[in-house]
Amino acid sequence: MKMDTKLKEISEEWILVDNKIIRSFKFKDFVVTFDFMKKIATLAEKIHHHPSWTNTYNRLEITLWTHDIGGLSDLDFKLAKKIDLLFEGFKKS
Q1: How far apart are CA 31 and CA 46, in angstroms?
Q2: Strand pairing report for 52-56 and 59-64
Q3: What is the pLDDT of residue 35?
Q4: pTM for the complete prediction?
Q5: What whole-number distance in Å separates Cα of residue 89 and Cα of residue 19?
C-alpha cells in the first residue's frame, strides 16, 4: 500500500498522526452528530472494520487504524472514503 496515494484518495481533512488517520467533525447538535455516528456504525459493520471515536455534544473525532497490524491498512482508507461520502450527504441536508 502506497501511503501517499492512499492519502490523496480521502478528504484533506484526514490527518496522519502516529500511523493513524484522524478527522474531526462538527454538527448542528448532538442528535445530528449521533445520527452520523449510527450511519458510520452500519458502514463499519458491513466491512467488519470499526473506528475509534470520541463524541462530545456536536463534535466527533474519528481515528482509524488496524489494531491487528498496529498501523494503517486498506480497510482504514476504505472506511475513511465511506465516511467522507456520508459526510457530504449530511452537509447537504
Answers
A1: 23
A2: antiparallel
A3: 97
A4: 0.92
A5: 28
The pLDDT-based confidence of 24 (bands split at 50, 70, 90) is: very high
Among candidates 52, 56, 58, 4, which has minimal Cα distance to 31?
58
C-alpha cell at 56: 462530545
Question: What pLDDT, in 10s, does the model give residues 51-80?
Answer: 999 999 999 999 999 999 989 999 999 999
DSSP 13-71: T-EEETTEEEEEEE-SSHHHHHHHHHHHHHHHHHHT---EEEEETTEEEEEE-BTTTTB
> Rounded to whole angstroms, what are the CA distances from 92 to 16, 31, 89?
27, 16, 5
C-alpha cell at 78: 476504505
